[in-house]
């Protein structure tokens, strides 16, 4: 039937709808009956009752941030445009529903496709291991030596020789102190109330390690400090070295426990002892060596390239600058070349090639030297044969005058003793020295405390005893000869009387 306009005057009246505001539809059989469509348009233009809607054009939801809602019961899922949308975007859906575990992926132009999620492999994975990058795409590493559990980070290199276990880097512009803390206890003031902190003191340019109570009941105290730029380390407490302490060195095959100091090519102090606050020697310079006023003992090389050891003992207003004490628990009374004593000084000759060598004849092995403003001089020398030599007197503490005894012996053996006593003695002094009776150049005149002016010197008592015994024997021989001469004279007189 062709579309025909309906005009009716008065107004035509049609059969009523069963629902107010309902949309009616024409009957498809009679063409003139009005039926209730089930679609309702209320006064606010809300439409309800639609089932399937087919549109040949675009479906528009106008107004800002309007939603397309999908209901399940009273709840729904909505799709809405974002606030502030500045351009038009179109998302083109994929051709199918994709495979299991795939996700929607855009090509950057609004075309959506189904794509498989990229997988990530974790090597050496286990409980509590920290995950790090591996340098390979989609691959991570579970670090065997780096774990985190119950608030505790554990670093275990698993090796005995590593260059670094933990590296903490701080920006040069940082104003706060980077801190690494170890704690024991819970800060309740009990015995286990300690924490240790290592940190960079940015303000003072120091790396510091300190200990303090967690709850603040005790102020902090630095255990050690390293000054930035100088590497000087200050320890505030005891340092316990279990085996060997190396200074400027790394090994010593001949030392199991002790201190090894390598001075390299330096020639100044290798070991100094100070007593700041109470020792003030007033010394700053010694011959060939500078010192400080609170030094009281110094060790250094004797020669810059040949070695040797010099020990300085320094004091002020005191006569004893260097003392040696030997405490021994036994005695040795032997008087021979194999004897021993509580204190010993040994002179040992080597051949400069890792072996011992013999001393040459008359070699000096010990010396007593004086050094003063007038220079240095060897005062007493002992040679390898055991002889002592002196450039000044050698006297004894007692009052026995052994040189006078020699004079007396010499006088007894010299016929013109009364007229040439002193001259003969001095004339024959060199002979006594050659024979080993008297120390060379030791005889001198001395004014004793008792007022006596007499000769003194160093005497070999063994040789003197031999000379004394020889003198007695010679005198006995002379006495015997005299007796025999007298007996002969008596016999001659008796014979003359008998005639």
Q: Measured on Cα atoms, how large is the radius of gyration?
A: 59 Å
Helix content: 10-25%
For the biggest sheet, the summary is: 5 strands, antiparallel
Structural class: alpha+beta
Please, could you describe this protein's structure?
The protein has 499 residues and is α+β, with helices and mostly antiparallel strands. The chain has helices spanning 402-413, 417-427, 429-435, 461-498, and strands at 22-26, 34-41, 47-48, 67-72, 75-80, 102-106, 112-116, 121-123, 129-133, 139-149, 152-155, 179-184, 194-201, 206-213, 221-227, 233-235, 244-247, 258-261, 271-274, 285-286, 289-290, 295-303, 307-313, 364-372, 375-383, 388-390, 444-447, 453-456. The strands form 10 sheets. It has a 5-stranded antiparallel beta sheet, with no helix packed on it. Helix 1 (402-413) runs parallel beside helix 4. The longest helix is centred in the C-terminal third of the chain and has 38 residues, at 461-498.
């Amino acid at each position: 039937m062709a579309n025909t306009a309906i005009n009716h005057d008065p107004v035509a009246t049609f059969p009523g709808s069963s629902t107010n505001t309902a949309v009616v539809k024409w009957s498809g059989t009679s063409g003139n009956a009005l039926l209730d469509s089930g679609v309702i348009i209320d006064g606010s233009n809300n439409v309800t009752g639609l089932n399937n809607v087919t549109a040949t054009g675009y479906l528009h939801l106008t107004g800002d941030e309007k939603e397309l809602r999908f209901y399940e019961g009273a709840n729904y899922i909505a799709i809405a445009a974002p606030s502030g949308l500045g351009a038009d975007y179109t998302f083109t859906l994929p051709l199918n529903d994709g495979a299991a575990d795939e996700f929607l992926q855009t090509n950057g132009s609004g075309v959506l496709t189904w794509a498989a999620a990229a997988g990530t492999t974790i090597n050496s994975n286990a409980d509590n291991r920290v995950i790090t990058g591996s340098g390979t795409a989609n691959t991570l590493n579970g670090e065997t030596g780096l774990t985190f559990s119950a608030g505790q980070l554990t670093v275990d290199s698993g090796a005995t020789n590593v260059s670094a276990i933990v590296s903490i880097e701080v920006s040069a512009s940082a104003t706060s102190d980077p801190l690494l803390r170890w704690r024991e206890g819970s800060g309740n003031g009990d015995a286990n109330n300690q924490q240790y902190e290592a940190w960079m003191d940015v303000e003072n340019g120091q790396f510091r390690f300190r200990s303090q109570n967690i709850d603040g009941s005790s102020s902090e105290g630095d255990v050690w400090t390293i000054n930035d730029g100088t590497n000087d380390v200050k320890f505030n407490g005891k340092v316990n070295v279990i085996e060997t302490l190396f200074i400027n060195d790394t090994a010593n095959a001949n030392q199991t426990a002790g201190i090894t100091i390598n001075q390299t090519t330096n020639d100044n102090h290798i070991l100094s002892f100070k007593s700041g606050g109470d020792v003030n020697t007033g010394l700053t310079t010694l011959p060939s060596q500078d010192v400080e006023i609170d030094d009281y003992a110094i060790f250094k090389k004797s020669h810059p390239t040949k070695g040797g050891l010099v020990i300085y003992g320094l004091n002020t207003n005191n006569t004893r600058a260097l003392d040696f004490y030997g405490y021994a628990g036994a005695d040795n009374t032997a008087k021979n070349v194999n004897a021993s004593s509580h204190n010993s000084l040994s002179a040992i000759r080597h051949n400069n090639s890792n072996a011992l060598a013999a001393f040459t004849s008359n070699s000096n092995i010990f010396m007593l030297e004086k050094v003063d403003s007038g220079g240095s001089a060897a005062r007493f020398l002992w040679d390898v044969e055991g002889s002592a030599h002196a450039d000044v007197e050698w006297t004894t503490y007692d009052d026995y005058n052994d040189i006078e005894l020699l004079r007396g012996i010499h006088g007894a053996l010299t016929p013109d003793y009364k007229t040439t006593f002193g001259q003969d003695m001095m004339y024959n002094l060199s002979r006594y020295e050659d024979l080993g009776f008297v120390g060379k150049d030791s005889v001198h005149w001395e004014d004793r405390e008792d007022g006596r002016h007499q000769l003194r010197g160093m005497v070999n008592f063994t040789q003197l005893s031999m000379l004394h015994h020889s003198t007695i024997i010679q005198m006995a021989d002379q006495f015997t000869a005299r007796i025999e001469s007298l007996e002969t004279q008596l016999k001659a007189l008796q014979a003359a009387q008998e005639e």
